[in-house]
Amino acid sequence: MKQQSNFLRCNIVSSALVLGLMMLSVTACTAIKPGRLIPISSGHSYLIMIDETAPSNAQVRLSLASAPVRLSIARNGDGAAISRVTCADGRAAAFDGLSWVAPPDCREFTWNVALEGIDHTGIDASLPVASYSLNHRYWLLPERGAFLRAANSGGMVKTTLRLKGGRTIVTNLMFPSADQPPYYAVIGSEPQQEYSSSELRLRVFGKPPQYPWMNALHNDVLARWAIWRRDLSSGKAPSVIDWVWVEVPPDAAPGYSASAGSEAIISQIKLRPGDPDAEAKARVVIGTSAAHEGFHTITGAAGQAWPAWVNESLANHYAITAAQAFLEPEDQKWLDVFYIAREVRTPLLNAQSRYTAGDGDQAQVFYTYGARFWRKIESILTIDSNGSGRLAALIAASNNFSDIDLNSANELASFLDLHSDGKAGPIVRCFLIDENCAVGTERSTH
Ligand SMILES: [Zn+2]
């Protein structure tokens, strides 16, 4: 069935994960690199000004340490919302069809961003544009919709949101470098709910589904994120994760979609009428997807620089593990249907090569076959477990595999052999490069 073969699809723009199902389609996109608490010493900073009385316009000011030759549209953007790019002294930057040519010796630029009001139209949560909701008082600022770049380096973003009553909310966040997942933030004044653990807060914006179990689900994922923050992170860790629920466009097909970036998770759901299992499916997909995204945010903050095959396969491995713990027994069958049983099997490094070349569908391999790879590795490791297992202990101890070339089957096999009495090598070679799979036991899906 087409829906089965396409049940997970990655949008390379923001590493989106899609489940196209009978009742649901799921997009869960990779978050990474939250900037809170990360000190950045850089002369590269954005100041974004938004006034609630003129909500459809943001003014951006970019200050640079040295004068650039040109400003380019940030990753995966089309520049459609950006206008009036000028040097701060009033000299206009000329658009040459691809980028803006900077006036000589200019180190400070301004531009306007047109923000789309989404209260009545909804928005695709898997690929949001720069937008706002007055009903729920938040603004979405994805990198692709609002930013110009002078270089690939990271920097800072300071956003000032002036509310109607005169109060101003100031938010300081990191701006990711070009080799990190894109900037993605929710700037809001009124979270619908807030959940706190001793180390981490979850703020929920917008209009979450009104299921009686949503409160428990939010608490479950926050607790899980806090555990991962302790066990999987050997470096910086986020203190806040924002999650915004946006309206579904009226003509959208039933399904669940989400995406995430450096600071936030954006999601939406539309149920298929008449499906008696709709609520159970929603519970499984929302909970598992949230765990997946939080994993990215937490490990991203710690500074991991994993290739996509590792990043996505680990995120789903841990999301599945978390879901198995917090889902009720009657929901487990949907976890199996959506995340485990329908495995897409391609040697992981082959899939990585195709993914790097632009074939986002290869992420299906990472989410399924890749997740099973880590389940097998977890089962043979000998390192002492921490609260999240032996693999988590190894990730933390190795500083996120920082000295390992994860695109080398031999290098990863050698490393994991050291922590598995030599059992890992055949598994690594089978899953990564399809070598000698016949002698292993890797062909079962569980
Ligand atoms: Zn992901």
What do you see in this structure?
The structure is a single chain. With 446 residues, the protein is an alpha+beta fold. The chain has three domains: 3-32 and 192-328, no CATH class; 44-163 and 170-175, Immunoglobulin-like (Sandwich), CATH 2.60.40; 332-433, no CATH class. The chain has helices at 2-5, 143-146, 214-231, 278-301, 308-326, 332-340, 348-356, 363-380, 390-397, 409-417, 424-433, and strands spanning 9-11, 16-20, 25-29, 45-51, 54-63, 70-73, 82-87, 94-95, 99-101, 108-114, 116-117, 131-133, 138-142, 148-149, 155-162, 168-175, 184-188, 193-196, 201-206, 240-245, 255-260, 264-270. The protein has an eight-stranded mixed sheet with strand order 1-2-3-21-22-20-19-18, covered by helices on one side. Strands 7-10-5-4-15-16 form a six-stranded mixed sheet, with no helix packed on it. The longest helix is centred in the middle third of the chain and has 24 residues, at 278-301. The relative contact order is 0.13. It binds zinc ion. The site of zinc ion has 7 residues, from helix 4 and helix 5.
